Amino acid sequence: MSVDIDKELNTEVHQETKLKGLNATIATPSVTRHIMKAFNLRASKKLGQNFLVDANIVRGIVEAAGAQPGDKILEIGPGIGTLTQGLAESGAEIVAVELDKKLPAVLAETLAAYDNVTIVPGDILKVNIPEIMGEGPFKVAANLPYYITTPILMALLERHLPISILVTMVQKEVALRMIARPGSKIYGALSVAVQYYTKPHIAFDVPPRSFIPAPEVDSVVVVCDVREKPAVEVKDEKMFFKVVKAAFGQRRKTIANAMKGAGFTKEIIEAAFAKCGIDSGRRGETFSLEEFAALADAIS
Ligand code: SAM
Question: Does residue 211 belong to any structural domain of this protein?
Answer without folding.
Answer: yes
